[in-house]
Amino acid sequence: MFNGSRKYSPLPSSPSSSRASSSSSSSSSSSSSLPAAPRRSPRALQHHSSLLSQYSSLLESYTEGEIRQLISALVERYSQAMNSGGHELPLFPRAGSRRKRARARHKPCALKELEVSVSELGLGYESDETVLFRYCSGTCEAAVRSYDLSLKSMRSRRRIKKEKVRARPCCRPLAYDDDVSFLDAYNRYYTVNELSAKECGCV
């Protein structure tokens, strides 16, 4: 059945052994008569020992204080995980959370609103009345023009040194809402113009 060039030599068997007596005892005695092959350490153990040597040399480069800080940080993470439900916290942030933060940082310029008191506006008025404050929020990465790129290059080459210039567009109001009127804490009437944004854009 086999036509290969490799030749197999029959195993030595005793003349008293017959084909019918193929029990486990005879097979174990015949296998024990075979010469033992030389043993060698598994590759997994060699790789494991090399990793251990690398980690040990890495830990030797740290000071005792740095190792204590590392251990305390790991213990704190573990205790937080056990208090929050017993799930282990990842040592490094996941790629999904990084992408979510990147998307949050690169939201386009848009108009938002917030209900605040007049005193919180920081204009020096004391009043408990609330107003709707509209503001512009977001980035302007898509609105970068040749002017912005050239200005950034001039600043990096230190051709423009002392002037305070902005080398990228900013999300700012293009138009303002109607004037806002209110009474202060002393029943005095005030009107403030250009308080809330009406339209936002990259300028």
Polypeptide structure, described:
The protein is an alpha+beta fold. It has a domain at 110-142 and 169-202: Cystine Knot Cytokines, subunit B, CATH 2.10.90. Helices cover 34% and strands 18% of the residues. It is built from 5 helices and 6 strands. The chain has helices spanning 24-32, 43-60, 64-83, 95-105, 146-156; strands at 110-117, 130-137, 171-176, 180-183, 189-192, 197-202. It has a two-stranded antiparallel sheet. It has a two-stranded antiparallel sheet with strand order 3-6. The protein has a two-stranded antiparallel ribbon with strand order 4-5. A hairpin with a 5-residue loop joins strand 4 (180-183) and strand 5. The radius of gyration is 39 Å and the shape is extended.
Observed structural traits:
disordered N terminus; two-stranded antiparallel sheet; alpha+beta
Backbone CA Rg:
39 Å
Terminal CA distance: 84 Å
Based on DSSP secondary structure assignment, what is the total number of beta strands? Answer: 6
Going by CATH, the homologous superfamily of the domain at 110-142 and 169-202 would be Cystine-knot cytokines
CATH topology tier name of the domain at 110-142 and 169-202: Cystine Knot Cytokines, subunit B
GO biological process, one term: nervous system development
GO molecular function: glial cell-derived neurotrophic factor receptor binding; growth factor activity; receptor tyrosine kinase binding
Subcellular location: Secreted
Keywords: Disulfide bond, Growth factor, Secreted, Signal
